[in-house]
Structure formats: structure tokens, C-alpha cells
Amino acid sequence: MLVLGHRGARWRALENTVAALRIAYEEGADGVEFDVQVSQDGEPVLFHDDSLADTTGRDAEVAALPLRELSQLEVRDRHGHHGRIEHLDAAIELLIERGGVCNLELKVVGGSGPRLVEAVVRRLQAAGLLPSVRAQAPAAGQAAGPGPGWVVSSFHRPTLERCVGAGLTLDLAALIDDEPCDFAALGGANDLAVAALAVAAASTRGGLRAIHPHHGLVDSARLELWRSAGCQVRPWTVNSPTRWAQLREAGIDALITDDPGGARAYLDRAAP
């Protein structure tokens, strides 16, 4: 079972920074998950919250400020870490070097989805991770990009669908919360969920390759359903040894955790 650092190693460094991503790898993570939003001037940056208020004191959304202003804000978290908002390019450089599963979550705030997809596609193309021209999306059953390591996830269904039309030929993952969200129907274990999976697969032209559920939704019935659709299962945010053990026994593909070092050490000790 793989271990992915949630926003890097956010208990050890400011989340969604290159430092946090690097520490996650150093602690033994097999990959990382991080959040991307778009600035007012169309630049993709690493940030999670809908508002800047709690971590910077600036009462605004990321999409309301240009990159120049965003990069000057000091960000502080409740763990005492501090730093700056960073550009996606800095993360891409590290991830190309380190490899593993690189889960880029598209954080859509308000109507930022179209500009966010455009910005991310542009930077991934510049890094050589996508074709330089918009290509035909892969048909169902075909490989969906440069390799299994790069994944684009979102709670926002129209944004994942837009990724396909924009030529983002990477594996797509539907995020499911235990609260209402666009992909909530996929979290069932009934005929409605089966139908919802079929619709999601069709609307992404076969690009939907993973389900990223809140860990409380994972049980044997849902696992069977998601697996029957050919999807990998990577629950979030899993921080307790008890739950690590349960999910390992269930046979999930990867877990997303705030404590990648602890999870890796625990799972290695538990390995037969």
C-alpha cells in the first residue's frame, strides 16, 4: 500500500510548499498530494483554503489577487509553520526529480474552474508533461498520459470534465467527501452509484481512473463497486494507526495522510 503526503508533510512544514513536499519524500512517502488555485493574472499557485483570511490575515480569495501580491503574503498555520505562497512550477521541478504518485488537486473557488484548468495545462505543457498541442482525449481503455504517477483530482465535476477538453491527458480522480459534493453519488453502494460511475466515466472519456474518498466512506461494498469500475482507491486524510491497519487489511491502493513518516514506518513494521 502506497503512502501519499497530504499537502506534503503538513505537520512538519507549511502545507502546500516545496519544503513540505520534500519532507514527505524524505520521510518515506511514495508520493504527495497538493492543492492548486489560480491567481487573478492566471498563474497556478499552491494553496488550499477558499479564503486567505485564516492564514494570511488578508480577507480575499486567491483568485482576487495577482501573483506578485500573493507571493509577498506571509502564510502562517496553526502548527506554527510559516512561509510564502508558491508557484506550481516550483513543485513540478521537485516532482519530476522525485517521482512517485503526484496528485494535483484542483481547488475551484467560485467561477475559477476554467481559468484554473487553462493555467495548469499551460504549465504542465511547458514542463514537458503534456503534449505541446491539444490532443484528442484518450478513449476508454487507453493509457491516459505520461505515466501512472501524475493524477489530477477535484471535487468539482465540471472541472474534471473540462480537463479532458483542454487536452489534460493525465489520470483523473473524483474526490468524495462525507458531506454533499459533486461526486457524492459515487460514494453509495447501490444502483445509483453504479449509474453515477458510468456517467462519470463517459463524461471524462475514460479518464476517470481513481476514486479519492473520505476514509470514513471506505467499506467492502464501496471498494468492490469502485474496483469494478477499474478505479484505484486512495482515501484521505488517514492519520491514525488503527485506520492505517484497517485500510491495509481492506486492500486499498494508497492512503493520503498528514503523517507520511509515521504511516510509512507503521506499515513497514506491519508488513509480513
Question: Can you describe this structure in just a few lines?
Answer:
The protein contains ten helices and twelve strands.
What does it look like?
The structure is a single chain. The protein is of the alpha/beta class and 272 residues long. It has a single domain, classed as TIM Barrel (Alpha-Beta Barrel), CATH 3.20.20. The chain contains ten helices and twelve strands. Strands 1, 2, 3, 6, 7, 8, 9, 10, 11 and 12 form a ten-stranded mixed sheet that branches. It has a two-stranded antiparallel ribbon with strand order 4-5. Helix 1 links the parallel strand 1 and strand 2. The longest helix has 14 residues. About 6% of the residues have low confidence.
Which structural traits does this protein have?
272 residues; alpha/beta; TIM Barrel; ten-stranded mixed sheet; two-stranded antiparallel sheet; 35% helix; globular
Describe the protein's topology.
Layout: E1 2-6, H1 18-26, E2 31-38, E3 44-46, H2 53-56, H3 67-70, E4 74-76, E5 82-84, E6 86-87, H4 88-98, E7 101-106, H5 113-126, E8 150-154, H6 157-165, E9 171-176, H7 191-203, E10 208-213, H8 220-228, E11 232-233, H9 241-250, E12 254-257, H10 260-270
Parallel strand pairs: 1-2, 1-12, 2-7, 7-8, 8-9, 9-10, 10-11
Antiparallel strand pairs: 2-3, 3-6, 4-5
Helix pairs in contact: 1-4, 5-6, 9-10
User: CATH architecture, please?
Assistant: Alpha-Beta Barrel
CATH fold-level name: TIM Barrel
Which CATH class?
Alpha Beta
Helical content band = 25-40%
Q: SS-based structural class? A: alpha/beta
| Straight-line distance between termini | 13 Å
The profile of the biggest β sheet is: 10 strands, mixed
Give the low-pLDDT segments. Answer: 133-148
Beta-strand content estimate: 15-25%
What count of domains describes the coordinates? 1
Q: How many E-type strands?
A: 12
> Order of helices and strands, N to C?
EHEEHHEEEHEHEHEHEHEHEH
Mean pLDDT, as a whole number? 93
What Rg is obtained from the alpha carbons, in whole angstroms? 18 Å
User: What's the oligomerization state?
Assistant: single chain
CATH superfamily: Phosphatidylinositol (PI) phosphodiesterase
Q: Sum up the overall morphology in one term.
A: globular
By DSSP (H or I, 4+ residues per run), the number of helices equals 10
